[in-house]
Structures are given as structure tokens and as C-alpha cells.
């Protein structure tokens, strides 16, 4: 259900874009749908999804600038800015606090040596930096239509493959928590 809440605004954006063939109408729909998704997710989990909150706030700012200026370039840059900010947070977590962001995300699954957590965290930093560059490459080198479809399907597929690779890597290096092992028995 939560995955559907995350993905639904993008599907509305894509559907609106395909129907009207107008990035600005699709952007307006997205700017309405994202806050609703954020609120629905909060109601389901009773927690604010930090990534969705940051993405929504950035969309409202950069999308608003795109609408006012009638220039979609600000919308095209929004994913890149988000990805690079997230990369900086992941990188900063290596030097601030006791645990990296990746370790906080996966620590309930099991234990690993600190160097593995740091390596995995750097992989996520590289992923987000690379995703930001890829987004800008597509935005500047392909049509608007291609960018919209790539934003919805391309990044979803890339992220899915990345997460599958993370799971495979984790399975090789992580030692399950005792509580996790007992729950499965």
C-alpha cells in the first residue's frame, strides 16, 4: 500500500502528461498529488517519510518556479538536486553520528563490520550522485516526452535493480540478528 502511495503521484503525472501533452498541466497535477501522498503516508505510518517530504518540498519550490517562469528546466533539475542532497546526507552520515544512514536503514536486519557499512554507504552516495547526473543527461539530451517517461519508468527500474543488488550484497556480508533468526523459526 505504501509503495502505491509513493508511486501514484508519478503515475498521475505521466497519465496527465500523456493525455494533455503539456508538462505544465502534468506538473500542476503532480504538485497537488505529492502533498496528498505525503499526508496519506503519514496517516498510514504515523511517521513523516523524510525522503517524500524533501521531494514534495523541493517539487513545490522548483515546480512553482517552473510554472511561474513557464520553463520546465527547473522541474528537470528537481530530481538531480534531490539526489545530490541525499548523497550529501549519506556522505555526511559517515562523519557525523555513530552510524551511517545505510546502517540505520538496515541495522534491524543484522550486523556487519563497520567497514562494510561504510562501503555500502559509499555505494549509495555514488548511486545518488550518478542518478543526478543521469537525470540531467537525459533532460538535456533527449526530448521532454522521453524525460517524463524515463523519470517514471527508467528511474524506477534503475532503483529496483540497485536495491536487488544491495540485497544480494547484504546476504553475503550481514549476520542476522538473533531476534530476526528466532522470528523465522
Please describe the structure with a list of short key phrases separated by commas or semicolons:
185 residues, mainly alpha, two-stranded antiparallel sheet, 8 helices, globular, disordered C terminus
Fold blueprint:
Blueprint: H1 2-20, H2 23-45, H3 50-69, H4 73-93, H5 101-106, E1 110-111, H6 114-141, H7 144-173, E2 175-176, H8 178-184
Antiparallel strand pairs: 1-2
Helix pairs in contact: 1-2, 1-7, 2-3, 3-4, 4-6, 6-7
Structure report:
The protein is mostly helical. The chain folds into 2 domains: 1-71; 73-176. It is 83% helix and 2% strand. It is built from 8 helices and 2 strands. It has a two-stranded antiparallel sheet. The two termini are 27 Å apart. Residues 180-185 have low confidence and may be disordered.
**Major sheet summary line:** 2 strands, antiparallel
Cα gyration radius (Å): 18 Å
Helix content: over 70%
How does the overall form come out from the CA principal axes?
globular
Mean pLDDT: 92
How much of the sequence lies in strands comes to under 5%
Side by side, the strands of the main sheet go: 1-2
Helical element count? 8
User: Using DSSP, what is the number of strands?
Assistant: 2
- The residue ranges in which pLDDT falls below 50 over 5 or more consecutive positions are 180-185
Number of domains: 2
**What string gives the helices and strands in order?**
HHHHHEHHEH
Structural class given helices, strands, pairing? mainly alpha
Amino acid at each position: 500500500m505504501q509503495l502505491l502511495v509513493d508511486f501514484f503521484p508519478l503515475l498521475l503525472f505521466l497519465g496527465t502528461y500523456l493525455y494533455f501533452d503539456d508538462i505544465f498541466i502534468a506538473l500542476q497535477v503532480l504538485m497537488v498529488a505529492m502533498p496528498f501522498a505525503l499526508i496519506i503516508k503519514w496517516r498510514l505510518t504515523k511517521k513523516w517519510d523524510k525522503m517524500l517530504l524533501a521531494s514534495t518540498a523541493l517539487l513545490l519550490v522548483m515546480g512553482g518556479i517552473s510554472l511561474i517562469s513557464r520553463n520546465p528546466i527547473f522541474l528537470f533539475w528537481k530530481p538531480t538536486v534531490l539526489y545530490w542532497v541525499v548523497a550529501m546526507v549519506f556522505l555526511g552520515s559517515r562523519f557525523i553520528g555513530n552510524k551511517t544512514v545505510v546502517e540505520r536503514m538496515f541495522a534491524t536486519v543484522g550486523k556487519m563490520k563497520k567497514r562494510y557499512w561504510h562501503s555500502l554507504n559509499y555505494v549509495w552516495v555514488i548511486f545518488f550522485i550518478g542518478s543526478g547526473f543521469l537525470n540531467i543527461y537525459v533532460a538535456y539530451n533527449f526530448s521532454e516526452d522521453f524525460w517524463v517517461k524515463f523519470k517514471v519508468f527508467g528511474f524506477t527500474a534503475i532503483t529496483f535493480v540497485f536495491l536487488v543488488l544491495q540485497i544480494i550484497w547484504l546476504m553475503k556480508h550481514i549476520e542476522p540478528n538473533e531476534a530476526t533468526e528466532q522470528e523465522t523459526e
